[in-house]
Amino acid sequence: MSTTKITVNNNGSLKVEGEFIIVDANGNEYGLQGRTTLGLCRCGLSGNKPFCDGSHRDGFENLSTAFDLPPKKV
Ligand code: FES
Question: What is the pTM of this model?
Fold first, then answer.
């Protein structure tokens, strides 16, 4: 099984690399035209959601630092 890597970019997008599909709320797949790397918007400013269009440069600030989530509830 291949690993999909998601990088939380400082002050910007979620960079997705690897093998993945992206679907909308109805389960319909976005046509990625063979892309294996792309940016998903996490700032809310993109005019092309869910994809990053660079609008985060207009003032989105959030530095990413990895941390551990609390234990999963069972
Ligand atoms: S993260 Fe790039 S436009 Fe939102």
Answer: 0.91
What kind of fold does domain 1-64 have according to CATH?
A: Ribosomal Protein L9; domain 1 (3.40.5)
Residue ranges of domains in the chain: 1-64
Of ligand 1's listed atoms, the one at least distance from the Cα of 53 is 3
Q: Give the whole-angstrom CA distance, residue 24 versus residue 16.
A: 16
Q: What is the pLDDT along the chain (74 residues), one digit of tens a residue?
A: 689 999 999 999 999 999 999 999 999 999 999 999 999 999 999 999 999 999 999 999 999 999 999 999 98
Q: Is the Cβ atom of 9 under 6 angstroms away from ligand 1?
A: no
- Give the residue whose CA is nearest to atom 2 of ligand 1: 52
Contacts (Cβ under 8 Å, ≥6 apart) of 37: 15, 16, 17
Ligand 1 atom nearest residue 55's Cα: 3
